[in-house]
Backbone:
């Protein structure tokens, strides 16, 4: 089985690396006449001319100069006060055109009202008003975790109870999977068939994240209370703990913990545990519950 996994990963890496060209410094890449940057803002200065498509993943794009191509931000915003000869697209964000902004193509905004966890967008805008959207997104996240648990309770329990022994390996698996997914999405962007497949890949990725995040909430809730609690209570404590971390702004610690640990672990835990194993399980007695299973 390990040989099969190694062969699949090797072939996937080979296929994904073929289209890639030269690598620039500061996290910027040239991929078939395109400039791509990950989780860092892209600035096209006033006197600069970029003769290529500009793509940002997880950050914003500021155009004060000229871009002879398309401008696309995934999970961020696009601010145009220069000239874009192609289309300006924001997926999960907005396109803002200033008084001097010129877009000869079309302006597209996709999922601009959606609130996606861990997507770093509109980071420079501060608000002193009560953030109702944050409360709604927290409630929605809690509901999605409850749904995931109810659909696959034994799988979620299995993943949660294995975190103690598989923490390091799950983290490594998470980083590796994220890198492969990013490379896959970039490759798919440059083909018509690939663009059609992007939503499918994104849905699979989000489902995997939700399964792993739910198991982490179960784990945190159980370890935090250290007493007999229901799975729903454990998930509620886990989601609340995540929100507390997300609101820690001192030195960006909350954001760093999410990016470096919570996000990759949520992806790595299902991958490492093979989604909690889909093999036939020996059913526990009807008197067994979540607390009894934790000790199995």
Residues:
């Amino acid at each position: 089985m390990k040989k099969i996994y190694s062969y699949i990963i090797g072939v996937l890496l080979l296929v994904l690396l073929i289209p890639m060209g030269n690598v620039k410094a500061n996290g910027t890449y040239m991929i078939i006449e395109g400039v791509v940057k990950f989780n860092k803002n892209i600035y096209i200065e006033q006197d600069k001319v970029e003769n290529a498509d500009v793509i940002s993943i997880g950050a914003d794009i500021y155009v004060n100069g000229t871009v002879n191509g398309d401008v696309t931000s995934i999970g961020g915003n696009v601010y145009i006060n220069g000239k874009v000869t192609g289309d300006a697209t924001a997926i999960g964000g907005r396109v803002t055109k200033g008084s001097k902004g010129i877009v000869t193509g079309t302006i597209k905004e996709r999922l601009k009202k959606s609130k996606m966890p861990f997507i770093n967008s509109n980071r420079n805008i501060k608000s002193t008003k009560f953030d109702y959207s944050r409360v709604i997104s927290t409630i929605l996240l809690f509901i999605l975790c409850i749904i995931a648990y109810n659909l696959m309770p034994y799988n979620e329990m299995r993943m949660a109870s294995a975190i103690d022994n598989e923490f390091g390996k799950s983290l490594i698996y998470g980083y590796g999977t994220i890198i492969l997914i990013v490379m896959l999405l970039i490759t798919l962007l440059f083909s018509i068939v690939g663009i059609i497949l992007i939503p499918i890949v994104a849905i699979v990725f989000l489902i995997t994240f939700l399964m792993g995040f739910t198991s982490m909430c179960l784990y945190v809730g159980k370890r935090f209370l250290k007493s007999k609690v229901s799975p729903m209570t454990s998930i509620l404590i886990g989601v609340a703990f995540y929100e507390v971390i997300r609101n820690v702004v001192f030195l960006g610690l909350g954001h760093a913990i999410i990016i470096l640990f919570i996000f990759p672990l949520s992806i790595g835990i299902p991958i490492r545990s093979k989604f909690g194993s889909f093999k036939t399980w020996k059913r526990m007695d009807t008197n067994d519950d979540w607390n009894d299973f934790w000790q199995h």
In short: The first strand starts at residue 28 and ends at 30.
